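Final report, Chapter 2: Outcomes

The project's central promise was a pipeline that accepts a single protein chain and returns its three-dimensional structure in a standardized token representation, suitable for archiving and comparison. That pipeline is now operational. To close this chapter, we reproduce one record exactly as it appears in the project archive, with the input sequence first and the structure output second.
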Amino acid sequence: MTPTRGALLAIDLGSTAVKVLITDVESGAPRALIRQKSSHQVAGEGGAAEQDPDAWWRTIVHATNEALKVSGNDTEILGIAAVGHGPTLVPVRADGSAAAPAMLWSDRRAASDDAHLAALLQRSGWLLAELPKARWFLRERTEAAGNTAHLLSTWDALAFRLSGEAVASFWDPARGLAPADRALLLGADGGLDERALPPEVHPGTKIGQLRAEVAGELGLRAGTPVVSGTNDGLAAVVGAGLMHLGRGVDVGGAAGGVGVSATTDTAARVSALVGASLWSGPAPTPFGDLRILGGALGGTGLLLDEAITNAIVGGARPETLMQEVAALPLGEFSLGSAASETLSGVQRVRAAAERGALAVEALLAPARAAGLPLDEMWLSGPATGATVGLHTTETHVPRGIRQMRADLLGVPVVVPRIAEAAAAGAAAIAGVGAGIYASLREAADLIAVVDQRIDPDPRSADAASAARERFRRE
């Protein structure tokens, strides 16, 4: 009989793609990483932005089965955790299937509910999470609400489908609801009911076991521990090991985003100087008294995806596209210039890739000038050049793509052994909840391993400076 090797299964639900990762529990090394396109966003009137959660699930099932094939028959999954985008509301039936389309983080229909609950609870933004969307849904979609068992985040909806246990999983104590808060939300003025307010747990908590009917779909053993997850941003913080001060993570993604680890004192000083240009929030609770400074970016990943797709449609070769892009000079092309319409497909891809890096640099520049230390930037996903994407047939990322990022950011960039930081974070969380690792720090140090480190090229300093200045003027 072939001996089995213990492994962890991580699911990362992104806005445009699903990533399924299997890691070895002893080494933390990836045994399989499958990235597949997810549900398309459906936009509608009034700021609607929706996706079909059942389409997510079909992609997850397919990607999980593919990952198990790659990992091999000797794989024994010892724990599962899911992370995802947010704040996105997922209405689910009792069996975990979709009761209605998910209201994405970009959905704007619940703006008035957001303002109402902010005044009611004296909190705003991310601290309200999915509650404003849940309030809107219960009021405006009464028929679908009648079929809804729970109103959950993406990661909690996946955990519910896997285990049958409904929870609200998050680290930030400011998001917790005191009895008085719950009473307000359940009252006439709050407009919510218990379906939107499941029991609160920390990420990394074993909440149940894999249901038999779901295990059959996924090709896994029923009874496998299911562990509560978190949003993909904080999962990336874990997967890139941001318990190390001065380390940043550039998560790429459809919208794009970045985070940097800092002490509480540094974060307070920087926030006082730069104001609301950067978000400042607590690191995952097990990382101690740290803060993460960063923010989201306006669709930089989608812009690059669109440029790549158009270049291939226009005749560029998918098997050599990124090699041609990497060979182009730094800072020669800009999507913001009047001449951008004359760019070739390959040149537009180069301009879009540089724009993503420049957006990160510009977002962090005021904070760095105010004293935020940034020693290195860990890269994640195709939009940063950490890994190949879904739009080309190339099997590796040319070094020049990563070098460009280091030159424009002005700091060393790190390509980790697991080039999808949120998925890596989900694996660490799964390992803690399954009892494999004693702490999240231990898990993150085992999983967040450097594969390649690239320093800025001094010969490109002038071109990089000129590109940064031009980006700020556009």
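Archive annotation: The chain has a mean pLDDT of 94.
This record, like all others produced under the grant, will remain available to the consortium after the project formally closes.
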